[in-house]
Amino acid sequence: MKPLQFISLLDIKARMGLKSEASKLYLSYLWWVLEPILWALAFFFVFEILLAFGRDLFFILCGKVPFLWFSKSVTNGSGSIVSGKSLINQTNVPKHFFPYETVQGILYKQWLVFLVLLGLAVIFGYAPTWHWLWLIPLIIVQYLVILAVTLLGALLVSYVRDVRILINMSMLFLMFTSGIFWDLSRISDPIKRDLLITWNPLAYLIDAYRKVIMYNTMYDVSHLLAVAGVFFGAIVLLHVIYHYKGQAIASRVINS
Amino acid sequence: MSDGQILLSAKDLEFEYSSRVWGFKRLTYPVLKGMTFDVRRGETLGIVGRNGCGKSSLLRILNGVIAPTGGTLIEHKGMTRILLTLGLGFDVHLTGRDNAMLSAMLQGYSRERARASLEDIKEFSELGDFFERPVKMYSSGMRSRLGFSTAMKTEVDLLLIDETLSVGDQNFNRKAEKAMMEKINSDQTVIFVSHSGKQVNKVCSRAIWLEDGQIKAEGDTKSVAREYKQFMDALSKQGGKTAWAS
């Protein structure tokens, strides 16, 4: 399949997937926005009303929205090859198409969710400035992170389905360690904080989103470039693996 | 019909099926045990054999879905192919039109070309207004019609057909059979897989009899079908073993 054809098919399949998904639900497209807001409200109830962490609702929202983008893409995308079994059985479609399709579908929802987030920022008193344009590199790098992790997850799950359980678990772990309902500055030991930022790019990204939207400050660009480089490299490597293992993956999926 | 150009060439094709049974335990089972044959452009090759002889695995390999575990399969570069199935891969929440569009694009059609082929598919399937409705509203016969029409109206180098095609009611069946015969008689390359020698004899120009993962007979359809029939008749008379009994 040629790259252009791949992209064209990806686009149409992702959009039709969204249509199909929305048609199953009574509130169809409304859920795109409703879901992150409900999540944030739940967190707000626990961490502010019950535990009094001292953060407002928007602070949580600003962490939860990017995190949900990541976690939904990875959890759904990891099972994508396995659930594409009937199609895999019929045609030799490139296997990385399936994780791409999931990531793409969620990406199409995400721009709207980000718009709503920015709208809420204004309501919460964070005036929009040109500085917000620095969100664009963050979003692009987060997309690379999501793609790499989803491609890896889908590949592993197609070989060993048990991995799916581990992925779900690590999502919960990541949720607690990415600073969604607490600020990175709460970690008083700078070495530990650096370690977290190095090994959990999500913690770095979420902190950077907040810096831009809420505090009007700048994030560490060189760190962002490093993250981009590492994950781009990972994507290229995974593409190579997918290319050579296509039929092996199919045979694993069909015979499982 | 056949211009002699080789589309597919199998040499000592082997396939061993490996499946996880429980925990870390895996079972392997040899399905194809060395097959050598060519498929030429424009011919209709019939592959006949009883249940469990390896037909479906062979079809998957020829379709490019899985790789053989032994031997080689040389394919004509850039070959497109479609396995004629009765609409397994449909998303039932999407309309018939959307599903047909996706199917065509999965076969390598560009968006414009896929869109252009839709009216043809709609007309052939006779689905009318239902073509614009979600597939979940379809009866099973309507789903088969959609699947069959989509595959029939997508132009590919190699058409793979599995087993009996009872597509719809008598009326559509006749139409489907006619369309299939037209494809077969045109320069379309077809591989037709069946457990019925009679069926293969009816449509194919050349036949292969597959038994226990090996080619037992090859060549003229009539004689292959006759040999196969004698074998099966003898089997039912003596109450012989199934293909997978060892």
Looking at this protein, list some descriptive labels.
heterodimer; A: 256 residues; mainly alpha; B: 246 residues; alpha/beta; Rossmann fold; 2 domains; 36% helix; 29% strand
CATH architecture descriptor text of the largest domain in chain B = 3-Layer(aba) Sandwich
CA radius of gyration of chain B is 19 Å
In percent, how helical is the residue content of chain B? 25-40%
**How many distinct beta strands of chain B?**
9
CATH H-level name of the largest domain in chain B... which superfamily?
P-loop containing nucleotide triphosphate hydrolases
Which of globular, elongated, flat, extended, rod-shaped describes the shape of chain A?
globular
Secondary-structure content class of chain A = mainly alpha
Question: Can you write the helix and strand succession of chain B as a string?
Answer: EEEHEEHHHEHEHEEH
Number of domains in the coordinates of chain A?
1
The percent of residues in helical segments of chain A reads: over 70%
Indicate the multimeric state.
Answer: heterodimer
Mean pLDDT of chain A: 92
Supply the number of helical segments of chain A. Answer: 11
